[in-house]
Amino acid sequence: YVVFQADEDYESYTWTIGDDPTIRTTKKVRLFFPEPTIPLTIRLVAKRKPRPDCIPNDDGIDIIEKTFQAVKYNDALILGKYQGYSKEGTPLVGNPLDTFTVNIYNYDKNRPNSAWFVADNFKRGVYPGYLTGRPPKITNMGYKVMQGEYSVLPFLNWKGWYTLNLTSDSITISGSYTPNLNDPNILSLQFKGKKIN
After folding, report:
1. What is the pLDDT at residue 132?
2. N or C: which end of the chain has fewer CB within 10 A?
């Protein structure tokens, strides 16, 4: 499923998705695309009471258009290997010369209609999937953005975002975790890397 949602509250919403004649009128629209699509234009016309005291010449109408394309799981641009470095702690500290590789891939790629996206080695030297048989799972998957969660020692309660920059073909992984059961501290982790395949 793909969710399109307005960033603010409005009195009315009018969504048009590609050439679909259906008009959707809720703040959030959730759609299922069973097959890949051509690029679609998503258009939202949102209306509210004008606020000329905040925004000069405000007519109360906001219009936004974005282009969207559904692809097969294994065609997502974010999949691949990235060479880069990490920073950890509060504040974040790291060495850009101390690089390593993170691999984002579909663990179930040989099973039809199955997808278990993982990111190996996003904390340097930790491949928890090999120890537990269940690699860290990506919980929300997009074409260039993903969200992941994981919780196995020494990497408890990991929650992070994986964002691909298409212009520079680079990735930023940002999140936090707890190092062990008896330590209440939450550590931040950030990886920045360049795609190498």
Report:
1. 44
2. N
